[in-house]
Design goal:
Order of helices and strands: EEEEEEEEHEHEEEEEEHEHEEHEEHE
Strand order of the largest sheet: 2-3-9-4-5
CATH architecture of one domain: 2-Layer Sandwich
Number of strands: 21
CATH superfamily of one domain: lpxc deacetylase, domain 1
Mean pLDDT: 92
Helix content: 10-25%
Low-confidence stretches: none
Radius of gyration: 18 Å
CATH topology of one domain: Ribosomal Protein S5, domain 2
Shape: globular
CATH class of one domain: Alpha Beta
Length: 284
Amino acid sequence: MIIKKKNQKTINEKISFNGIGLFTGEKVSLNIYPADEDTGIVFLRKDLKNVPLIKIDLSLITESDRRTMIGLDKNSIQTVEHLLSALYSLEIDNALIEIYGSEIPIYDGSSKYFVEKFLEIGLKDQNKIKKFFSINNPVYFSEDFTHIIALPSNEFRISFTFHSKNTFIGSQYYSYLVDPESYLEQIAPCRTFSVYEEIKYILDNNFIKGGSLDNAVVIKDNAVLNKEGVRFKDEMVRHKILDMIGDLSLIGKRFNAHIISIKSGHLTNVKFAKLLNSHLVELS
């Protein structure tokens, strides 16, 4: 397989973000800086003393079914998937992310704000060529009702089927070619979502301290509680794709494959990422 060579990419200048963590409810701030070639995406918890960089590493992922966490013990960062999805989809390879807090800001529950700000300051090509990887044979993963298949391909595409017992959501399918040109319009605006009856327990016990209708789509009694309604009739499955891009970016490699997913979430995305990584081969 031959691919068009692309240069590595970073951001033009420092950019700052401030917001609230969905799970902690705490105010958090980020400073994201350009980084040299081959740096990758790295985090630094500036609110802690003598803390090393947290580099994208599948061995440092804490499994969670409602968000993705990286790092170890206190030196960890949660809800990284929306920011990572934006970085990967815009083909930003190198960035240093200083964070004051333990969670990435949730904003409206999508990655739209991150993408808009990155495009506002601009991106720049670097001197080194990106490395690309692929698979030679299909890779399969199944666990309970979740099934994920990666097929050899000359592009990175995710085809996702999502089903909910909630009749408003029902069954949704979307197939998306991961591309910086279309990401802002088709995927980035899609917000995280919950069925109220399914999360009532964690809401009642204050496990989601920063959650509100400002940062998630909430469906109750088969109706959307948000005044805005949904941004797409299939916003839920599109958000699942947004999450999956972010979770698979934790492999730390650019790769081509057609990912076909049935009802996966953060836990199974991460398990599949580890499996897929063991099958990736570098393209020449």
